[in-house]
Amino acid sequence: MEFTYYNDKLIGQLEYGFLPISPNTEMGYRPLELFISSLTGCSTSLLANILTKKRIDYKRMDVGVSAVRNPDEANRIEQLTFKVSVQTEDADKEFQAEKIASLVLKNCGMIQSVVGSIDIRYEIEFTSEQPKKGDVA
């Protein structure tokens, strides 16, 4: 990976393309957004693999992430809570949600890299498949 800083933003030259990074949302992605996106990308991909291995078919997963930051310590991230809604025809898998969540936490490399510094909470909810607004039924 290579990065160049100019005009008050950092540009990453990555395999997929250019990635603008800036604390100014009009000039690029904020570092917090990228950090949380990397944890979400890793954990959600892993969750998809776990569901496939457990033969739990799903239509989609929606992930909401909330962060608690400490303004007294350089605005560091102290807690991240991931709430994953797995839409499946087999919504009675709720009894497996906690075990699957612990597998994600234990096996996600990105989460394991920060787990000693940040309190990470991972919650999974299985719901029946229902189109969201704007989805084609």
Task: Summarize the structure in words.
Keywords: Membrane, Transmembrane, Transmembrane helix. Helices cover 29% and strands 34% of the residues. With 137 residues, it is an alpha+beta fold. It has a single domain, classed as K homology (KH) domain (GMP Synthetase, Chain A, domain 3), CATH 3.30.300.20. It has a three-stranded antiparallel beta sheet with strand order 1-2-3, with no helix packed on it. A three-stranded mixed beta sheet has the order 4-5-6. A hairpin with a 4-residue loop joins β2 and β3. The longest helix is centred in the N-terminal third of the chain and has 23 residues.
Structural class: alpha+beta
Largest sheet: 3 strands, antiparallel
| CATH homologous group name | K homology (KH) domain
H/E series, N to C?
Answer: EEEHEEHHE
| Uncertain segments | none
Beta-strand proportion: 25-35%
CATH architecture: 2-Layer Sandwich
Helix percent reads 25-40%
How many alpha or pi helices? 3
Look at the structure and give the mean pLDDT.
91
CATH class: Alpha Beta
Distance between the termini: 42 Å
The name CATH uses for the topology is GMP Synthetase, Chain A, domain 3
Characterize the overall form: globular
Rg from alpha-carbon coordinates: 17 Å
Q: How do the strands of the widest beta sheet line up side by side?
A: 1-2-3
Number of DSSP strand runs: 6
Number of domains: 1
